[in-house]
């Protein structure tokens, strides 16, 4: 599967967002008030004065995105067939080459994603861990953590199935989640990492 061919992620991003929100809701009961206070301070300081996703805020016009991303040196990815609901670019993030996707509805930005190349399971797990470490340095302890290397003394949702690894950070506006997805191409044993950025509350 090519990168462009694997990027028709609009419906899958909605499913991932739904799964993330479901687990986030379950996590609420297991996180004490002290942790909430700490997270609120962390998110308030790290999210201030920045766009919700790279160069765009949720609800802003998608028509403005290409000029802004191209000015940063990114390359446009043109999927075949075209997908009018998406703006896709090739660039660097988390020390890796990724596809950067803006999903739009009625011309407005609604969610974003970083899509990694297909990798072997071991390499995909290393990519997942690298992103986890990067975002943990920025946002602190995850809001939901079903990774195999969880931080802290209270595991949230440990999972034996790599397809159910989910880590998420959330503040008043943005939820950032990481997942591993198996490539569904016949005979493939590859995996792919997604970093998905959505509104923390339905718009």
Per-chain topology:
Layout: H1 10-27, H2 33-47, H3 65-71, E1 75-76, E2 86-93, E3 96-105, E4 108-116, H4 121-139, E5 144-145, E6 166-170, E7 174-182, E8 191-199
Antiparallel strand pairs: 1-2, 2-3, 3-4, 4-8, 5-6, 6-7, 7-8
Explain this structure:
This protein has 203 residues and is of the alpha+beta class. It has helices at residues 10-27, 33-47, 65-71, 121-139; strands spanning 75-76, 86-93, 96-105, 108-116, 144-145, 166-170, 174-182, 191-199. It has one domain (5-199). It is globular, with a radius of gyration of 17 Å. It starts with 9 loop residues before the first helix and ends with a strand.
Distance between the termini: 33 Å
- Please state the average pLDDT score: 78
Could you give a short account of the major beta sheet? 8 strands, antiparallel
Strand order of the biggest β-sheet: 1-2-3-4-8-7-6-5
> What does the radius of gyration come to?
17 Å
Order of helices and strands: HHHEEEEHEEEE
Amount of beta strand? 25-35%
Please work out how many helical segments DSSP would assign: 4
């Amino acid at each position: 599967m090519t990168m462009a061919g694997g990027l028709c992620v609009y419906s899958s991003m909605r499913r991932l967002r739904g799964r993330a929100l479901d687990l986030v809701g379950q996590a609420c009961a297991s996180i004490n008030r002290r942790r909430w206070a700490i997270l609120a301070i962390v998110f308030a300081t790290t999210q201030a004065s920045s766009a919700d996703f790279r160069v765009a805020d949720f609800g802003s016009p998608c028509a403005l995105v290409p000029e802004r991303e191209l000015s940063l040196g990114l390359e446009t990815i043109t999927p075949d067939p075209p997908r009018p609901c998406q703006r896709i670019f090739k660039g660097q993030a988390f020390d890796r080459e990724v596809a950067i996707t803006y999903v739009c509805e009625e011309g407005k930005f609604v969610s974003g994603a970083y899509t990694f190349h297909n990798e072997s399971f071991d390499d995909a797990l290393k990519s997942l861990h690298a992103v986890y470490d990067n975002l943990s340095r920025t946002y602190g302890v995850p809001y939901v953590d079903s990774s195999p290397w969880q931080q802290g003394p209270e595991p949230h949702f440990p999972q034996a199935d790599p397809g159910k690894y989910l880590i998420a950070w959330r503040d008043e506006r943005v939820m950032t989640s990481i997942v591993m997805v198996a490539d569904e191409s016949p005979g493939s044993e590859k995996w792919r990492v997604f970093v998905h950025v959505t509104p923390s509350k339905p718009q």
